[in-house]
Design goal:
alpha/beta, Rossmann fold, five-stranded parallel beta sheet, about 50% helix, globular
Length: about 200
């Protein structure tokens, strides 16, 4: 990883978006710019693996997350993410937040967080997930829409909790980046955002 280009200020960023928006590609770009990536999805997968939860079973995944949130609070993954921040980390991107509860856990312990939302049309996002082929990814447009609806409320079981889900995070975004072109197009947009944050 090369030295960070944006080192005059301490940056703590949250990158959010609906499934397939391109958060992973954005994370690659941030990492190339010297940021440390802390991905809540990786934390979830590690915990699920330890608990022997089959990633291809949506019901098992949902029940597992529900149990964790019931035992440790709705912002449990945010708590795990904060533990991974080291004093030496000057520029950090948190990836994969799914609820305002997780954001609240970050903001309890970290100052100056900026939110960047990555966006793209639904059809484009579905095709990206199909080509990615993770075990937990939906294989049909119907499954994708169902998955997206769960994501919108952060996999919180009660539909009333949708106000705390991914869409709530997107609405709080300080910046929205449209990811409808190439990786280099996305890189230019991200660089503009970083330059603006540094002003």
């Amino acid at each position: 990883m090369k030295e960070a280009r944006y080192i005059s200020g301490f940056m703590m960023l949250v990158v959010v978006g609906l499934p397939g928006a391109g958060k992973g590609v954005a994370a690659d770009i941030f990492e190339e710019e010297g940021f440390v990536i802390i991905e809540l999805g990786d934390i979830w997968r590690e915990l699920a693996k330890k608990a022997n939860i089959p990633l291809s079973d949506p019901l098992a995944r949902t029940e597992f997350t529900g149990r964790l949130r019931e035992e440790y609070g709705k912002g449990v993954y945010g708590k795990y993410a904060v533990r991974r921040v080291k004093k030496s980390m000057k520029n950090v991107v948190f990836l994969g937040l799914r609820s305002t509860y997780e954001l609240a856990e970050l903001r309890k312990r970290l100052e100056g967080i900026k939110i960047i939302a990555i966006d793209a049309p639904r059809d484009m996002r579905f095709e990206r997930l199909r080509s990615r082929s993770r075990p937990e990814d939906p294989k049909t447009i119907e499954a994708f829409i169902e998955h997206e609806n769960w994501e919108k409320r952060g996999f919180l079981a009660d539909k009333k909790e949708e106000k705390h889900g991914v869409m709530a995070l997107i609405k709080q975004a300080d910046y929205i980046v449209e990811n409808i072109g190439t990786k280099e197009d996305l890189r230019k947009d991200i660089e503009r955002v970083l330059s603006d944050i540094q002003k």
